[in-house]
């Protein structure tokens, strides 16, 4: 499983162009401007020379820290500027999404202190939450995330940050009941929003489609991982959905092997105890399902260097199960595996 990365830069580049246009177009009103205003036409904000120069410093700043510093100077000198909101949007993108999580968290805190309305602060809070999770500041990240979601309950990016952080910790074997509970709930909400195709405002149709198609199978996988110990049926349902969207993901397929094999073992034990023919039929049918998932997992892991050991174990188990169902013969195993290889 990989870590959450949130990228919605298309919107912000457009915003930058708007700010540049505002800065370059602003000037002394002309008679035509006044005439247009009288006719109700939209007007560009009129900026002082000082505002224009301060905004240009933001535009030309070379890195996030420099942009944040220039923005702080702009707001200090022009707290009620007509382009304050646009400046906030531009700077938010540059400070909230970077590779250095410590820097991102620090810059986001700085941004929230400078652009001090709740609405402005929420421009960077998704990035802040993501950075705090990457820094493993679990309680702080959950607190920021929960407060943000109270105001923005349908922001799927923050829900994904919470869900993915919890799934990653669980996969590592780290016990954190608070985080796991929050992640399980967040993943359910995120899946529901994505299944309903509820696009956040900051995405255009193209970027939302790419984001949704990328994250929905991973959310199903994360839910499968988080639910497997408490609700095996729901875990399996989510993993099957993940496999339907990403049919060659080894992690998803191996979890489905384990779950279906556990189901088979349960049925086999019941048959041994009760000796009922219907249980035998169900156990045989379940074994065929296990064989199918094993073949898919073998196909997905074959030739992957870091999964060589897993592939070998899967193939041994596949041969044993397949042989049991075919009078000890395994001639058809390779053909079955080939069927599921990525073409």
SSE ordering: HHHHHHHHHHHHHHHHH
Helix content: over 70%
Mean pLDDT: 89
Cα(first) to Cα(last) distance is 24 Å
Number of strands: 0
Structural class: mainly alpha
Note the main sheet.
none
Low-confidence stretches: 2-41
Radius of gyration: 27 Å
Structure summarized in a few sentences:
Helix content is about 75%, strand content about 0%. The chain is mainly alpha-helical and about 350 residues long.
Question: Top keywords for this entry?
Answer:
single chain; 343 residues; mainly alpha; 3 domains; elongated; disordered N terminus
Description of the molecule:
This protein is an all-alpha fold and about 350 residues long. It folds into 3 domains: about 10-25 and about 45-125, no CATH class; about 155-245; about 250-340. Helix content is about 75%, strand content about 0%. The protein is built from 17 helices and no strands. It has helices at about 10-25, 30-40, 50-60, 65-75, 85-95, 100-115, 120, 125-135, 140-150, 155-170, 175-195, 205-225, 230-245, 250-275, 275-300, 310-325, 335-340. Helix 3 (about 50-60) runs antiparallel to helix 4 and helix 8 (about 125-135) runs antiparallel to helix 9. The protein is elongated. It starts with 8 loop residues before the first helix and ends with a helix. The model is unreliable at about 1-40 (pLDDT under 50).
């Amino acid at each position: 499983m990989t870590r959450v990365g949130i990228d919605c830069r298309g919107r912000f580049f457009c915003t930058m162009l708007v700010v540049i246009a505002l800065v370059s177009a602003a000037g002394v009103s002309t008679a035509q401007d006044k005439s247009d205003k009288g006719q109700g036409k939209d007007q560009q904000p009129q900026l002082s020379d000082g505002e224009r120069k301060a905004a240009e410093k933001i535009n030309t700043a070379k890195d996030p820290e420099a942009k944040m510093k220039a923005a702080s100077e702009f707001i200090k000198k022009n707290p009620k500027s007509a382009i304050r909101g646009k400046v906030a949007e531009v700077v938010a993108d540059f400070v909230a999404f970077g590779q250095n999580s410590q820097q991102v968290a620090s810059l986001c805190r700085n941004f929230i202190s400078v652009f001090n309305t709740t609405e402005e602060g929420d421009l960077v809070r998704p990035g802040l939450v993501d950075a705090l999770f990457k820094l493993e500041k679990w309680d702080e990240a959950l607190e920021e995330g929960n407060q943000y979601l109270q105001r923005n309950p349908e922001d799927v990016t923050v829900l994904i940050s919470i869900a993915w952080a919890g799934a990653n910790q669980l996969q590592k074997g780290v016990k954190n009941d608070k985080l796991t509970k929050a992640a399980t709930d967040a993943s359910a909400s995120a899946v529901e929003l994505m299944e309903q195709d509820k696009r956040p405002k900051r995405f255009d149709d193209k970027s939302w489609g790419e984001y949704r198609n990328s994250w929905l199978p991973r959310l199903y996988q994360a839910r499968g991982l988080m639910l497997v110990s408490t609700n095996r049926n729901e875990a399996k349902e989510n993993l099957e959905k993940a496999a339907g969207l990403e049919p060659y993901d080894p992690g998803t397929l191996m979890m489905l092997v384990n779950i279906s094999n556990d189901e088979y073992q349960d049925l086999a034990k019941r048959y041994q105890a009760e000796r009922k023919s219907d249980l035998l039929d169900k156990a045989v049918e379940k074994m065929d399902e296990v064989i199918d998932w094993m073949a898919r997992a073998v196909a997905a892991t074959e030739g992957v260097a870091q999964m060589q050991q897993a592939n070998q174990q899967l193939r041994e188990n596949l041969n044993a199960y397949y042989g049991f169902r075919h009078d000890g013969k395994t001639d058809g195993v390779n053909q079955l595996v080939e069927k599921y290889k990525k073409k």
